[in-house]
Structure formats: structure tokens, C-alpha cells
Amino acid sequence: MKTVPDTRGFLQAGGRKLEYARWRGDGSRKPLLVLLHEGLGSVAMWKKFPARLAAHTGCDVFAYSRAGHGLSDPAVLPRTPGYMHPEALETLPQVLVTLDTDELVLIGHSDGASIALIHGGGVIDPRISRMAVMAPHVFIEDMCIAQIAEARVAYRTGELRGKLAKYHADVDHVFHGWNDIWLAPDFRRWNIEENLPRIRVPMLVVQGADDEYGTLAQVRAVTDQAGGPAQALIIPHCGHSPHRDQPEQTLAAIGGFLAP
Question: Which end of the chain is more exposed for a tag (fewer CB within 10 A), N or C?
């Protein structure tokens, strides 16, 4: 199976030049699947998952790196506690308008899942037929902050910086843009639950049973408060990244969710 993108390049959105990539499915399925990466992610950090998703579903898969990530232009730092809202309500719609399709499915991971939820509750785009969110954050938990504090230590003294540097043009910009705001005292009040009742499209919520960044309360908040049908899948022996920790189960879940 070919894992490199069929198309890659740059687009303009949010006043920045953003890198993107697209993997072609076999044409048997119509929706275009749009991947929204995690807080330290990028196009490249999805690794083999987009190609495997395209092969498994038959759908085209599109991914882009938000400002400050991957090969995209830098973001404006320092960030404020509400930084995901402009990403979801301004930049993401500008990205989606460049896509020549009449049906979209948003698939977000971690921060990308939160951005998908904010977008779904704040933007009316009739092309979006479904959403799948993996390990979403909708409010702040102590365990999450503790893990992010540990990541700061690992970045300063361990191998994390070197591992991330392979995927970003400016790794310090990416890390501190994420880590500094999540550890800011004002961020402890961050909460996007008010968006959930306004999301009307069907949702799949996937979380690892051993997620180190969030409890199942995050999942229950989404499924209990969503304005449309929402189903949950808790994957055993899986941490914060279902698509990396348990790719077969994650692909099967998304494939089943997209089935007519």
C-alpha cells in the first residue's frame, strides 16, 4: 500500500500559508475525510494512518497542518485560552471552502477533536455529514495538566524535543505554543460544553481505556450533551492516540460509522 500522499502543497487560510496533503481512495465512497491533528501534530505526524484510512474506507483523506505546525507559517504567540475558537470558527471554514466536494466528514484527534466540536457547534456547513472525534477535550482535568507538565520536563531534559523536531520546521514554536497555554492558570477554566447541544450531525467518540490525558467523563460529556446521535467506543489497551495505539480497531470503527 502506498503511504505517501497523492497530492501535497500549500493553501491560504487564517492569514497564513498552511501545508496540506491528500490521499486518494478507490472512489467507491463519496465523503472527503478531513483530519484535524493533535496539539503537537502535523500532516507528517499522522504517519501511515491517512493512507490506511483511505484504503479501508475508499474515501479520499485530506489533512493540513495548523499555523505553527509542520511546514505551515508560524502562529501568533503567546496564545490565549480561547485560541481554539478562531481555529475552528475562522481558519477551518476557510480551509474547507477550498475543498471541491459536497460531503465532508471531520475526524479530529485531541486538540483537533476539540476544534471539530467547536466548529460543529458554531458553523453551519451542510456539507459536513458526520464527525468522528478521538480523545476529545471538552473541559480541563487534573490528570491532563499533570501529563502536560511532565511533557515539559521531557522536552527540556529527555528525547521528546528530538522526536518532535522531525515533524516540524520550528519545533520550539510548536511545543511552547501548546505547552505554555495549557499550563497557564487561566486555561484551567477552559470549557467547550456549551457547543455540544448545537451539534446535530451523527458523531463517533473514540477513546482509549488507558488514555493518560483524559477520563471517560470527557466521552460522557459529548455523548450526553450532543444535539444529534452520538455513539462511544472505548478501546481497551489503548492510550491517548487510538489511531496509533490500536489502528485496526480505530479503522474498523470509523469504517463502520461511515457505512450507509
Answer: C
pTM score, whole prediction: 0.97
- Give the burial string for 225-260 (b: 16+ CB within 10 Å, else e): bbeeebeebebeebbbbbbbbbbebbbebbeebbee
- For 187, the domain range is 7-258
| Residue 1 covered by a domain | no
**Burial class, 26, CB count within 10 angstroms (exposed 0-12 / middle 13-18 / buried 19+):** exposed
Residue 109 pLDDT exceeds 70: yes
Summarize pLDDT for 13-39 with one digit per residue, the tens: 999 999 999 999 987 778 999 999 999
Structural contact between residues 41 and 49, judged by C-beta atoms closer than 8 angstroms:
no
Task: Judge contact between 243 and 250, C-beta under 8 A.
Answer: yes
- Number of domains the chain contains: 1
Q: Among 23-37, 159-173, 204-218, 232-246, which is the least confidently predicted range? A: 23-37
Q: Return the closest-CA partner of residue 19 out of 43, 3, 53.
A: 43
- Which of 60, 91, 98 has the alpha carbon at shortest distance from 73? 91
Identify the burial level of 152 via C-beta atoms within 10 angstroms of its C-beta, where 0-12 means exposed, 13-18 middle and 19 or more buried: middle
Residue 245 sits at φ, ψ, to 5 deg, of -75, -40
- The 3-class secondary structure across 181-233, one letter per residue, is HHCCHHHHHCECHHHHHHCCCCEEEEEECCCCCCCHHHHHHHHHHCCCCEEEE
Residue 251 · residue 233 · CB < 8 Å: no
Residue 198 neighbours by CB distance under 10 Å: 16
